[in-house]
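Possible regression after last week's pipeline update?

I re-ran a chain I had predicted before the update to compare outputs. Posting the input and the new output here so someone can diff against the archived version. Not blocking, just want to make sure nothing changed silently.
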Amino acid sequence: MSGSDWLVLVVEDEAPIRRFLKTALEAQGFKLIEAPTGNQAMAMAASHNPDVILLDLGLPDIDGLEVIRRIREWSHTPIIVISARGKDTEKVEGLDAGADDYLAKPFSVEELSARMRVAIRHLRRARGKDEPVFQTGELRVDLAGRMVWVAGDEVHLTPIEFKLLAVLVRHSGKVVTQRQLLQEVWGYHSDDQAHYLRNYIHHLRHKLEADPARPVYLSTEPGVGYRLKYQE
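New output (post-update):
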């Protein structure tokens, strides 16, 4: 998928990093606009309607988490956090605030552009009212009919297993935090209940993966949550 005609808002207070991203991403066909502060970022997000926002959390005027929350009040534009804050708790805070993904510095441009493509693809599917049958690789999920197939063979899931998988499908390609999953599947979140989630992910992998120890579809983001990988 080409980056041609995609507008990227880079929110970063360090000019050398902005120059690096501008050079690297424009070489791949993206168009970039830049904001060195949180206030400028929110104004430019509203006026330019970018396809994706790359956001550093350490801004000079407003904390990046607050910028995410404010933008999420009115926009579904994909937000990818790029930050030197690499602790798991800070990743979770960014994702729970409304970010779509998180890359800790330093990162490769190839990894960043791949994450951007997934985030934009996810938004476009959502805007297009996703097809009731989702497919990635050999995994097919009929959300309306509550049916699942792997390599053409139907897989029987329990109601909770299907609900968990459906949440991951709706957020395919994105990291979904443990807090989000517990809230959406069970209606609450509690660190004491995280073992339920691990058990159900374990059961899903044994039903969906050819090798549960090396999952192709359901990946773990250690200390953060889970991601349903999206393949063309």
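Follow-up from reviewer: compared with the archived run. The mean pLDDT is 86. Marking as no regression found.
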